[in-house]
UniProtKB/TrEMBL annotation:
Intracellular or extracellular location(s): Peroxisome
Domain Acyl-CoA oxidase C-alpha1 stretches: 293-454
Annotated ranges, domain Acyl-coenzyme A oxidase N-terminal: 23-151
Name the UniProt record assigns to this protein: Acyl-coenzyme A oxidase
Predominant localisation class: other
Coiled coil: none
Length: 671
């Protein structure tokens, strides 16, 4: 593949690549999960990227909203057809994981650009059927949905409520006479608002609605609802559906609105894996009423993978550009250095490379936990559900925040050119930041983690055994850091101690408010800024621990392990230095420790500097997936910027229409 061949690059990048101290392929294999998987991924990329159907006639930024939607829909449908029509392709791409990569942050971002109208079908509609449907329901709906015979989305959020699910207003009232549910939107705020693909693309949706049967409300449950006619694609009688208008980014996802007027669906359309309504209207409770939130748990875990892949792209662009860009003088009279020579630039970029690995190791761990816990749930054991919920909320919030901040740091690190659409950094940013809001707004996610931490803290006080991710709340004490041990193990212990003290302080603050007469919920609100900090510190500790474990367990040659250990060390130290107050106040580290760590960080930046370009090369991102004038493999930055500017439709004529209509009359007004 041309974009990966050595030798075809500018002199700056050639020299950078010659300095590489480790085996790049080893890191690529580590990220993909093994050599076979890397080869497999490259093969799929080669097939899809060679297909001219996936090319855009012009940059999507120059198209109208509707043209952009049609262009992305064309490519998304071609992708599904290519997949369905070819058995070899199905074998090659694989099941859910492969198709998710085609639709999402892997290869998908090269095939469709600013949101994929079919993404929610694969990311949430199919998982909702699998996670919430009975075996018979899965058999019926999956066979139709998998091939694209029907297309669906996940319609939960309403105009009035996104976060507070118990406040959703859409109703599903069971009529035992006809054995139907009546779906209804009683108010304007009950209008479903935001679901991807809902506006114009889908003909079905999993609708989350308050279930009423035998005169009683049983809370939010999932229903498969037909939105549009399968032949004409017109909206069904009793259904009003449309698109919600332009957004910060992801504009071709056709996020939509949806209202129901006493709309009837068959009894069989309630997804009944966890709770049931019998034909006579009797309600059968689930083992845990939060099981109907399961689709969100799955997607929160998946978001962690999207987050680091977006950051990988941004930091690849910014690092290569920083090796090609020369600016200012480091030493008066000497040639202008590559901007990557500036320590401040290294401090912007190298921690982002480390963050990619930190999130990756933690995400892999949560993914394994997700599979274990869902396996247990299917056998009736729900003991680990609260821990999984807290981990998935915490890591979703940490990864989307870190990736968004990191992408913006990369954009800023490219100076003015990073602000250009052709750098692709603006689009990567608008896509990444959306994940802070969707699938559970991050502050709300942090507060869920804090709730779990405080509960666990109180359990520990009562002498109960804690689940593994919070077991440190039993064992750590607030004793001052005694030794000069600053090994990775000692730093992870310091993270644990800092959170442990913070959680115990938060519990004391809560108790203080309660002692003064506040009800628990009001006391909680009064402490919530600090509670969020506890949750963030916990998620950071967890990520640090998984990073250290991940590097220790990886099978790597000496040189590759050394570079990965440096990144790991940088990650541990970086977050200590930017949150040093937590470590000092808790007594986990001394001022002297932090000074030593700051010095060490400067040394690590210098040690990693020669490997910077090779580190991002090892992410192995194809030029078409990067889609950036600043970040391509060959480093031919200036020519690409110029060529892209020439393609602007405004440059197809010398004098614009606007000149004759507006400018000339103004300029010649006094003649
Ligand atoms: C390509 C583009 C892809 C884009 C995809 C985007 C798709 C979407 O955005 S879909 C919509 C996503 N929406 C959300 O995520 C909504 C966020 N809100 C929520 O999840 C919940 O309402 C939440 C968690 C905030 C609070 O729920 P609520 O029912 O009020 O529960 P609450 O009273 O706080 O807690 C009750 C208990 O349930 C637990 N709980 C809450 N959620 C869960 C869960 N998912 N699993 C297990 N337990 C849970 C709590 O921990 C708590 O436990 P405990 O009492 O032991 O402490
Ligand atoms: C790009 C995109 C795609 C989306 N796709 C879908 C989709 O496919 N399907 C779907 O159903 N939904 C979708 N959503 C909706 C998304 O899930 C919600 O926007 C999200 O859950 C946040 O809810 P909200 O908008 O009601 O925000 P709000 O809850 O109103 O949040 C507003 C502010 O209030 C704060 N706040 C709210 N509650 C609390 C609390 N308890 N404690 C402290 N602070 C609080 C928040 O932190 C935030 O600062 C999408 C959203 C976006 C942006």
């Amino acid at each position: 593949m041309a974009a990966r061949k050595e030798g075809e690059c500018c002199e700056d990048l050639r020299r950078e690549r010659a300095k590489c101290s480790f085996n790049k392929e080893e890191l690529t294999y580590l990220m993909d999960g093994g050599k076979d998987k890397t080869l497999h991924r490259r093969k799929i990329e080669d097939i899809f990227l060679a297909d001219p159907e996936f090319l855009d006639p012009i940059r999507p930024e120059y198209m109208s909203h509707e043209e952009r939607y049609n262009n992305e829909l064309r490519k998304a449908c071609h992708m599904i057809r290519k997949f369905n029509e070819n058995e070899d392709m199905q074998q090659l791409v694989g099941e859910m994981e492969g198709i998710r990569s085609l639709m999402g942050s892997g290869l998908g971002v090269a095939l469709t650009k600013d949101g994929n109208p079919l993404a929610l079908h694969f990311v949430m509609f199919l998982p909702a059927i699998l996670g919430q449907g009975t075996v018979e329901q899965q058999g019926y709906w999956m066979s139709r949905a998998w091939t694209g015979e029907i297309i669906g989305t996940y319609a939960q959020t309403e105009l009035g409520h996104g976060t507070f699910l118990r406040g959703l207003e859409t109703t599903a009232t069971y009529d035992s006479n006809t054995q139907e549910f009546i779906i209804h939107s009683p108010t304007i705020t009950a209008t479903k608002w935001w679901p991807g693909g809902l506006g114009k693309t889908v003909n079905y949706a999993v609708v989350m609605a308050q279930l009423y049967t035998q005169g009683k409300c049983h809370g939010v449950h999932p229903f498969i609802v037909q939105i549009r006619d399968e032949e004409t694609h017109q909206s069904m009688p009793g259904v009003t559906v449309g698109e919600i208008g332009p957004r910060l980014g992801m504009n071709t996802n056709d996020n939509g609105f949806l209202r129901f007027n006493q709309y009837r669906i068959p009894h069989t359309n309630m997804l009944m894996k966890h709770s049931q309504v019998l034909k006579d209207g009797t309600y059968v409770k689930p083992a845990n009423d939060k099981l109907s939130y399961g689709t969100m748990v799955f997607v929160r875990v998946a978001i962690c993978f999207d987050a680091y892949r977006q950051l990988q792209r941004a930091v690849t662009i910014a690092t290569r550009y920083s090796a090609v860009r020369h600016q200012s003088e480091l030493v008066p009279g000497e040639p202008e250095p590559q901007i990557l020579e500036y320590q401040t630039q290294q401090y912007k970029l190298l921690p982002q490379i480390a963050t990619v690995y930190g999130i990756m190791f933690a995400a892999n761990d949560v993914w394994n936990t997700y599979n274990e816990v869902t396996g247990n749930i299917s056998e009736g054991n729900l003991a680990y559900l609260p821990e999984l919920h807290a981990l998935s909320c915490g890591l979703k919030a940490l990864s989307s925040t870190d990736a968004t901040n990191g992408v913006d740091v990369c954009r800023l690190a490219c100076g003015g050119h990073g602000y250009l659409a052709t750098s692709n950094l603006p689009r990567i940013y608008t896509t990444t930041t959306a994940a802070i809001t969707y699938e559970g707004e991050n502050t709300v996610m942090w507060l869920q983690v804090a709730r779990y931490l405080i509960k666990s803290y109180h359990d520990a006080q009562k002498g109960h055994r804690l689940q593994q991710s919070v077991s440190y709340l039993t064992t750590q004490s607030a004793s001052a850091h005694a030794t000069a041990d600053l090994s990775n193990t000692a730093l992870v212990a310091a993270y644990k101690q800092a959170v442990s003290v913070m959680v115990s302080n938060a519990a004391a603050h809560l108790q203080d408010h309660i002692s003064k007469g506040a009800v628990f919920e009001k006391a909680w609100n009064s402490c919530s800024v600090y509670l969020v900090k506890c949750a963030q510190a916990h998620a950071r500790y967890y990520t640090c621990e998984k990073f250290v474990d991940g590097v220790n367990r990886a099978e790597l040659s000496e040189g590759t392990r050394t570079v990965l250990l440096r990144l790991c060390r940088l990650y541990l130290i970086y977050h200590i230095t930017i949150n040093q107050g937590d470590f000092l106040r808790s007594g986990a580290l001394t001022g002297g420790d932090i000074s030593s760590l700051e010095k060490e960080m400067a040394d690590i930046l210098a040690a990693l500097r020669p490997d910077a370009v090779s580190l991002v090369d090892s992410f192995d991102i194809h030029d078409r997936v990067l889609d950036s004038s600043l970040g391509s493999w060959d480093g031919n930055v200036y020519q690409r910027l110029y060529n892209e500017a020439l393609k602007s439709p405004m440059n197809q004529t010398d004098v614009p229409q606007g000149y004759y209509k507006y400018l000339r009359p103004l300029m010649k007004a006094n003649l």
